[in-house]
């Protein structure tokens, strides 16, 4: 796995959570991109990489599709307590 050379950016708050959940579920970026398409979100590999690195802003509809594709709640994706 290729590691980032630069620290995370500050354009979104979900990037690190997306990486953590995606890798915990054993999904490669390419597989995750295909899964996102099934939920109506078609983004490029570069765009996903920038999102995960927190170098890209995320639209509200993207947050919903990403949460669905990862099979987690939007609240969990946003790092909110689920208790």
Automatic annotation (TrEMBL):
InterPro entries: Cro/C1-type_HTH (IPR001387), Lambda_DNA-bd_dom_sf (IPR010982). The lineage of its organism: Bacteria, Bacillati, Bacillota, Bacilli, Bacillales. Residues 41-77 form the HTH cro/C1-type domain. It comes from the Bacteria. This is Helix-turn-helix transcriptional regulator. Signal peptide: none annotated. GO terms for molecular function: DNA binding.
């Amino acid at each position: 796995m290729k590691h980032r050379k630069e620290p995370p950016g500050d354009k979104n708050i979900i990037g690190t959570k997306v990486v953590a959940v995606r890798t915990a579920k054993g999904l490669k970026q390419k597989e995750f991109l295909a899964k996102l398409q099934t939920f109506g979100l078609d983004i490029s590999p570069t765009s996903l990489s920038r999102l995960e690195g927190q170098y890209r802003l995320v639209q509200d509809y993207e947050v919903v599709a990403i949460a669905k594709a990862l099979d987690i709640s939007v609240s969990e994706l946003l790092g909110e307590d689920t208790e």
